[in-house]
Write a structure and sequence with these properties.
Blueprint lengths: L3 H55 L1 H11 L6 H26 L5 H15 L4 H8 L5 H19 L13
Length: about 170
């Protein structure tokens, strides 16, 4: 005679083992999918950055405008427009990088690389004027980061580096 209670208990145990195995498999698939999404996001951001840099390298007028800007020379009206649109595209790319990292789709080390790029951007002499006109079109959290970097740059320019607050050293 078949012991139905024992057979039922064995079936329940087998079902529980199957559920646990499925959960482990699902967890590994989620980790693999997350890594894949993170890699695709990093690649997409890198490709967009590369396209912006190639635009300068392959467009003589834009390359000349950037050369003049970096040398502190006066830009024509057309060059100012080119540089402003390029700057907007660059900052949008960096802003997107920070948003993707905030959502957990990008590793911290990739974000740090773009933060270093942003630090270089704020050192460009015309950046301050450009930012004062464009700042409100950016996400508030990103604006806060840019303005923090601008304050640090201003403090460094004025010789207040190392005080931690950007304020002049106490007398």
């Amino acid at each position: 005679m078949v012991n139905w209670e024992a057979l039922g208990a064995v079936a329940e145990l087998a079902g529980a083992v199957g559920v646990i195995a499925s959960l482990f498999y699902l967890g590994s698939q989620l980790r693999r999918n997350s890594a894949s999404i993170e890699a695709a996001t990093a690649l997409s951001i890198s490709e967009a950055t590369q396209q912006r840099l190639l635009a300068i390298a392959q467009t003589p007028g834009l390359a000349e405008a950037f050369g003049k800007m970096l040398a502190g020379q006066e830009l024509s009206a057309a060059e100012r427009v080119q540089v402003a649109f390029f700057q907007r595209a660059t900052l949008r790319g960096i802003e997107s990088t920070f948003a993707q990292q905030k959502r957990g789709l990008l590793a911290d080390d990739v974000r740090r690389g773009y933060e270093a790029l942003l630090q270089r951007q704020v050192r460009i002499p015309v950046f301050h004027d450009w930012w004062s006109m464009e700042r409100l079109s950016f996400d508030p959290a990103f604006r806060e980061l840019v303005e923090k970097l601008l304050e640090q740059e201003t403090a460094a320019t004025l010789g207040f580096v190392g005080t931690g607050s950007g304020d002049p050293p106490a007398a």
